[in-house]
Design goal:
It is built from two helices and four strands, in the order E-E-H-E-E-H. The chain has helices at residues 17-29, 52-59, and strands at 3-5, 9-11, 31-34, 41-44. The strands form two sheets. Strands 1-2 form a two-stranded antiparallel sheet.
């Protein structure tokens, strides 16, 4: 089974109950926001400003 969200992208290790619990907690805390990189409406943690795709692009030196 594949798990994905706009906070961290693809989740690995989801057979681990602790990882499943953390994933569920992240989902509960996430809110609908406009990503400052791509402008999409995404569910991310309140203190995040970029979705995972845009954050990864920035970390790799990409531009918007």
């Amino acid at each position: 089974m594949t798990f994905y969200d706009d906070n961290f992208g693809h989740w690995d290790g989801m057979s681990d109950p602790d990882m499943q619990e953390f994933f569920q907690e992240v989902q509960k805390k996430s809110v609908l926001k406009k990503c400052e990189g791509c402008g999409r409406e995404v569910f991310i943690l309140p203190h995040y400003t970029y979705c995972d795709t845009c954050a990864t692009r920035r970390e790799q030196g990409g531009d918007f």
